[in-house]
Amino acid sequence: MLLIGLGACEKYDSLAEIQARGELVVVSRNSPTTYYLGKNGPTGFEYALTELLAKELGVTLRLETVFSLPDIFQQLERNEADIAAAGLTLTDQRVDTFPATDAYYRMTPQVIYVAGQFRPRSIFDMQDMSLAVLKGSSHAELLREIQRIQAPNLAWIEVDEADTLHLLDLLKQQETDIVVVDSNEFAVQQSLFPRQSVAFDLGEEQDMVWYLPPDKDNENLLGAINNFFLQLQSDGTLERLRDQHLGHTDGITRMNAFTFDRAMSHKLPAYKALIKQVAKDYQIDWHLLAALAYQESQWNPKATSPTGVRGMMMLTLPTARELGVENRLDAEQSLRGGARYLKELMRRLPKNIKQPDRTWMALAAYNVGIGHLYDARALTERQGGNPDLWQDVEKRLPLLQQSKYYKNTRFGYARGQEAVTLVQNIRHYFSVLEWQDITEKQPMPPLPSDDYFPETVQDVEFLAL
Q1: Among candidates 388, 439, 434, 393, which has minimal Cα distance to 416?
Q2: What is the set of domains in the chain, with CATH numbers?
Q3: Which one of 46, 51, 185, 296 is the catalytic residue?
Q4: Is 296 a catalytic residue?
Q5: What is the DSSP letter of 202?
Q6: What is the pTM of this model?
Q7: What's the rounded Cα separation, in Å, for the pair 120 and 126?
Q8: What is the pLDDT of residues 199-211, one digit of tens each?
Q9: What is the DSSP code (8-state) at residue 103?
Q10: In this structure, are strands 131-134 and 105-107 parallel, antiparallel, or unpaired?
């Protein structure tokens, strides 16, 4: 009995176990900031990080999703996952039970309200409002602490979901006055809810960490993960992934988001089928083509600018002639011309530029011309950056507006900041269009057991045979 007891208390080296198994099991949430199935398969910030870690460890990745935050920690307690990577905040209550890695990102809890309605500006304003947070979240812990110390009349409901999308939808449906979400999640999802805005920050920035199971020897695994984060930080990979998955929201105003939301409802339906068909013919993601068309003309086939560009894709007359577009004001001709031009720009870029950087650079060239893009790439290389990464090139494009830089380039002055803004906007519109499609196809959480059977069936006594 003593030997059995000692065996039961023995903790296994989690890193050795993962490598022996040949598989890293990660539990996460289905959301745009963590993990979701995109058009090309699994994607998301947390997915990208854990996939890199699995490669670093020489194993395959298996990512499991749950429908509530408590389920994440239950999987760790049951040793059904090696890591919880789900945009989780470091809290005293969690770390008392679950070992945590070093921080790899930071975020701020924010109170969200509907613009135009009463805006709370302090914790005390919240006491007379209906408030919702996710069950098992760090926000629920924070509210309990605030209630204990500062605001005893503060009350809230805890929603048993894993994604803040559900909270924001409750706010949209006027089922609550305010909600609390993290800054990074609201920034990504605000475009789906353009009437919503930040009332105030509920607290200071908090660390985002991964959690590990409590009943294993995690010393080696923690060391490997922390070294992994350190390497990603030092070589710029962490910032690149952050920009790729979360950076498209930078610089987008609530008014821009509101205008785009209205256009999706009122303008896009008339051209959606045509955009999809043209995108299919030219093997372009239709979300990307639609985002570019919106940026150029707000989906207006008759659009005309003072500089002479016209139509849905705002083509110049020489470019339209080169592309065989006879009538720039014809929506189909314009879309086909723009799609062909974008494909040609992608083809002309050096082969060593990978996606998604290839697309972002082609979009910049669509606006400023491929010659100026080449100048920006050359300037990037001279300054020690990587000319194959959009993250580095976009910092140099605005320099083409300064004489001390453009006088030493082949093509001279260019409105580089305008090109950077265009790409940023298109990335944002593209993500909103794509995520709107994905949310419509998301799996629903399982129903409570009582909902599986109608009341007439529930009342029947089942006898064991």
Answers
A1: 393
A2: 12-104+211-249 (3.40.190.10), 109-204 (3.40.190.10), 254-439 (1.10.530.10)
A3: 296
A4: yes
A5: -
A6: 0.70
A7: 6
A8: 999 989 999 999 9
A9: -
A10: unpaired
